[in-house]
Write a structure and sequence with these properties.
This is Penicillin-binding protein 2. Belongs to the transpeptidase family. The chain is of the alpha+beta class. About 35% of the residues lie in helices and about 15% in strands. It starts with 5 loop residues before the first helix and ends with a helix. The C terminus is likely disordered.
């Protein structure tokens, strides 16, 4: 028996009951508040979301628009293939995460099990290619080359292949008409990622998990127009997933067609002649190194002089864009991106940078005239030029006496431009400049260098003008390294580092004279030089180069033409332009390119040219050849290919032969001319929106011209030996080695 009074025990019980009642009341109040929040305040939102849980979407991908050449010939279109795909979501629900199913599938398709498994793994920083870079919820294509028998096996044995489908699907095809490739211009596709879907969710063109997007070239630049809009059908389903009705349906809108200014026939010749020029260069011995030229990369641009439209653009090495269709294999990916691949995905016409060599001299000439040096004055073309005991030699020590600037362009006399640059450097204050005019650097910027041309292709690079601002920034970024190396290293490289440490921020005399002939730290791209020479041809207008010509809706009712646009004019007066124009005509008739244009019908089709041979420290010379007529501008470059006229000259001549139908006797055969005048109109559009393509034959045989394939062949035929156009060698110019070693 407890000694506690009865009233004490009762009081405790009462308190406990009160506490319990308060807790129960609080819980009921909280629950009631939450119910009010869910049912009253946010009731509409959750009602809608609940309804969505009973809606299933079926997506029908839109047919991607075609990419056509200027005559309507497909460069990229679509074809129906049997595509076998795997649902990663379904495979992950299986006990062994789909390994058995994928192995069984590999046996049916005749593929290696490890290759099939690699296709469905997700890409991340540690996962090697191939892997799936798209959404993990989207069906992943295993192959787009399944046979009818393979597809039937999969569909009839569905219990053995859960999560696997085999369906006829429209896939991208890069047709390669007439033997053309056009890979870097066209680009390629790959699946959309979840990040891209989220980013585009509220944009002008939202993405679906089934979409493929352009990754480079035209496919990327005009992706929104080409992609169209996928069709989405929404079905109402019950909680067991059974369809109980159709909620809403949005029809698929096919992508628009993009008509380009590319002519597939000219493109095929440009690609073939560039490739052949590189092969021929590898047969020639470099006199400086004693070994054959490597000719490891090259590019060529064929452009309409009066509009900036690109008729052909080739980059070498190249690749087959069809390798990306249906997912790229590990072997192909390595061949395209590995360190030994030489990066064929790179479009060297807009992304390849190199010193321009003597084709830069049209800029130097304009700068000299604008700085007050008369075009027709006499300038001494000596065999060498001395600055403070440092000798800068003319190429092969040639001397032409007193000549004007026009003749200096014709024979590509380095010492004339050395002298002009040195005199202007002195006027600007030499090593102690005070408000320098910097005509030579200012003019290069006015010509459009060190900035994008505005071409409608992604990832164009800017090149470089090594002016005072650039030199200062470059010195600030590298001075610590130079100073450290200069203190410890007594070798030649160490001495150069020490000099750069002490004076690398200054515009030295050697920098200026090297710059005047397109050497030193100057970098340009083929598309920049094509834009400049086209502007000289048309009277001075710098056009934005364009590949796209029109965007045409799938029904043919909407046509958006892409008009030529200008981003400025060259900084010369009409008389200076005419003088330079006449000098460049002289290059083709009696100057450094004359041996490549022997027999050319100059009276009917006036030809203008400039050769260039640029030196790169530690490498063989870069070949440049810049040319134009009233209709077209062609610029070709070959890395480690030799001289401009020697390596690139024959190929450029043959492209012109194909354009104008010039035979080996210099006569014009209009029936053989591929494009004697630029294509002005658009292809014919039918009432149903289809675009009528003009037929294209197999690639014509290589147009032959009077230009021979090699300098030695020219000499054996009795023609004159080629005038050389390059700058002095590094051994002859210590300053150049200093500049290019940085």
């Amino acid at each position: 028996m407890s000694n506690l009074p009865e009233t004490g025990r009762t009081s405790r019980i009462t308190i406990r009951l009160v506490v319990i009642q308060i807790l129960v009341f609080s819980l009921l109040l909280t629950l009631g508040g939450r119910l009010w929040y869910l049912q009253i305040r946010n009731g509409d939102q959750y009602t809608a979301e609940a309804a969505d849980n009973h809606i299933q979407q079926v997506v029908a991908p839109a047919t991607r628009g075609s990419i056509l050449d200027a005559r309507g010939v497909p460069l990229a279109d679509n074809e129906t293939r049997l595509v076998v795909s795997a649902s990663r979501t379904d495979l992950m629900k299986i006990k062994d995460r789909g390994k058995t199913v994928l192995a069984r599938l590999a046996g049916v398709l005749g593929l290696k099990p490890e290759d099939v498994a690699a296709k469905v793994r997700l890409c991340d920083a540690k996962t090697p290619k191939p892997c799936w870079a798209g959404s993990p919820y989207q069906p992943i294509p295993i192959t787009d080359e399944a046979t009818t028998q393979q597809a039937l096996q999969i569909r009839e044995r569905q219990e053995d292949f859960p999560g696997i489908t085999a369906e006829p699907t429209a896939v991208r095809r890069y047709a390669g008409p007439g033997g053309s490739n056009t890979a870097q211009v066209l680009g390629y596709l790959s699946p959309v990622s979840d990040e891209e879907i989220a980013k585009a969710k509220n944009g002008r063109s939202p993405l679906l998990r089934s979409d493929q997007v352009g990754r480079s070239g035209i496919e990327r630049q005009y992706d929104t127009e080409l992609r169209g809009k996928a069709g989405v059908t929404r079905y109402e389903v019950d909680n067991l997933g059974r369809v109980i009705g159709k909620a809403k349906s949005d029809k698929a809108v096919p992508g628009a067609a993009v008509v380009t200014s590319i002519d597939a026939r000219v493109q095929a010749i440009a690609e073939r002649e560039l490739d052949q020029a590189m092969k021929d260069a590898r047969k020639e011995i470099d006199r400086n190194t004693g070994v054959p030229y490597k000719a490891d990369a090259g590019a060529v641009v064929v452009m309409e002089s009066k509009t900036g439209r690109v008729v052909a653009m080739a980059s070498n090495p190249t690749y087959d864009p069809n390798a990306w269709v249906g997912g790229i294999s590990g072997k192909d990916y390595k061949e395209l991106t590995g360190k030994d691949s030489n990066y064929p995905l790179l479009n060297r016409a807009i992304q390849g940078q190199a010193a321009p060599g003597s084709i830069f001299k049209v800029i130097t000439t304009t700068a000299a005239v604008n700085a007050g040096y008369a075009f027709d004055d006499g300038y001494n073309c000596s065999s060498s030029y001395n600055i403070g005991g440092q000798v800068f030699k003319n190429f092969e020590s040639q001397s032409h006496g007193s000549i004007n600037l026009g003749r200096a362009l014709e024979v590509s006399c380095d010492t004339v431009f050395y002298d002009l640059a040195y005199r202007q450097w002195q006027k600007d204050g030499g090593n102690k400049p005070k408000n320098p005019a910097d005509w030579f650097y200012k003019t290069a910027h006015q010509f459009g260098l060190a900035k994008e041309t505005g071409i409608d292709l992604p990832n164009e690079v800017r090149g470089r003008v090594p002016d005072r601002e650039w030199k200062k920034k470059y010195w600030e970024a590298n001075k610590d390294t130079w100073c450290k190396q200069g203190d410890k290293d007594d070798s030649y490289a160490g001495k150069i580092a020490k000099e750069n440490c002490e004076s690398g921020m200054r515009m030295r005399a050697g920098d200026s004279v090297n710059y005047s002939i397109g050497q030193g730290d100057t970098l340009v791209t083929p598309i920049q030089m094509a834009t400049i020479y086209a502007a000289i041809s048309n009277g001075g207008t710098l056009y934005n180069p364009t590949v796209g010509k029109a965007v045409i809706s799938s029904d043919g009712k909407e046509i958006r033409e892409i008009k030529p646009t200008s981003h400025g004019r060259l900084p010369f007066k009409g008389r200076t332009r005419d003088q330079i124009d006449a000098a460049l005509a002289g290059v083709a008739t009696r100057g450094t390119a004359a041996w490549r244009f022997q027999g050319w019908p100059q009276n009917e089709i006036p030809m203008h040219a400039k050769t260039g041979t640029a030196e790169v420290y530690g490498k063989q010379t870069t070949s440049w050849f810049a040319t134009y007529t009233a209709d077209y501008t062609i610029v070709m470059t070959i890395s480690q290919g030799g001289t401009g006229s020697g390596a690139s000259g024959p190929a450029v001549r043959k492209i012109y032969n194909g354009l104008y139908g010039v035979d080996d006797k210099g006569k014009i055969d209009e029936k053989k001319a591929l494009l004697p005048h630029p294509q002005t109109g658009l292809p014919k559009i039918e009432k149903d929106g289809t675009i009528e393509a003009q037929p294209i034959a197999s690639p014509p045989p290589s147009p032959s011209g009077s230009a021979s394939d090699s300098p030695s062949a020219s000499a054996s035929d009795g023609s004159s030996a080629p005038p050389s156009d390059g700058p002095p060698s590094p051994e002859q110019s210590p300053s150049r080695k200093e500049d290019e070693d940085r």
